[in-house]
Design goal:
The chain is 60% helix and 13% strand. The protein is of the alpha/beta class. The chain has a five-stranded mixed beta sheet with strand order 3-2-1-4-5, with helices on both faces. The mean pLDDT is 85.
């Protein structure tokens, strides 16, 4: 059995860790609430601009804009959104696992990677995957300019013919306890069967083609912005839950160590009493 001093030191160490995890939980909670608010503000605009483009796109000649070009799928780029830091439960590992599944189905030699976040970039670079771009150390100062910068790199890679399709893998925020991994196609813009809505009797000024040409670049930047906000809010929610669990586990460990300490202390007291009684009996004899 460990000595009383060793048990006291372990209790002290666990209490220090518990204070750290509790503080990290509160920080993550504050960041999550702010990120969730920004995300909920961005969602309606992102969805609406996408709906407008989807409504107009079938009536527009795709040859009027390079971003609308649909080519045979020979090579695919995956945009992978992870975090810069750990201590967020399975947030990063689930994204990486899903990315590996996508690459397995596509073929590693036919896949390029855009890594957003240090965890994903480090993982894939160490294993010699083809990482075209990586963006790290910006989450705490996240703003729309980051979305524009990332979007420009993605669009350029598509327009030069390096890849024929671009997909984004990210965590979609549902609630504090649940984040859903999504894989969405960003480029090229095209309909899936049955997606088109019923036609509406509207007059468009300027033409549908001009509206689509104007909206598509903005649409791409807004969607990237939404992905970043969803991922950041999901990261903070995952970290808050992980730190809450760590704090609860530390509390249980402290209780267990305190019980062990009490038993060891009782054993020590009992042993001392037996020694005193034995000494007294020896003196009597």
């Amino acid at each position: 059995m460990a000595s009383l001093k060793d048990i006291r030191n372990r209790i002290k160490s666990v209490k220090s860790i518990q204070q750290v995890t509790s503080a990290m939980k509160m920080v993550a909670g504050a960041k999550m609430r702010k990120a969730q608010e920004r995300m909920e503000q961005a969602r309606p605009y992102a969805y609406r601009i996408r709906d407008v483009i989807e409504e107009l796109l079938p009536d527009v000649d795709r040859g009027t804009l390079d971003l609308l070009e649909v080519r045979p799928i020979e090579r695919v780029a995956l945009v992978v959104l992870t975090s810069d830091r750990g201590l967020a439960g399975s947030f990063n590992s689930n994204i990486i696992k899903r990315t590996l599944q996508e690459m397995e189905s596509l073929g590693r030699e036919r896949t390029d990677l855009f890594c957003i976040g240090k965890k994903g970039a480090d993982f894939f670079r160490k294993r010699n995957y083809r990482v075209v771009e990586s963006h790290t150390d910006f989450w705490n100062q996240l703003n729309f300019n980051h979305a524009v910068k990332i979007g420009n790199g993605i669009v350029s890679h598509f327009l030069t013919g390096e890849v024929d399709e671009i997909r984004v893998i990210f965590n979609e925020f549902k609630n504090v306890a649940t984040q859903i991994i999504r894989v969405e196609r960003v480029l090229p813009l095209k309909f899936e069967p049955g997606e088109r809505r019923a036609p509406r009797d509207r007059i468009y000024e300027p033409s549908k083609a001009a509206i689509v040409r104007s909206l598509v670049p903005r649409h791409l930047n807004v969607q990237i912005w939404r992905y970043l906000l969803e991922s950041f809010a999901s990261e903070q929610a995952a970290r808050m839950v992980a730190m809450e669990n760590a704090t609860d586990n530390a509390n249980e460990m402290i209780k267990s160590l305190q019980l062990e300490y009490n038993k060891a202390r009782q054993n020590a007291i009992t042993k001392e009493m037996l020694e005193i009684v034995s000494g007294a009996e020896a003196l009597k004899q």
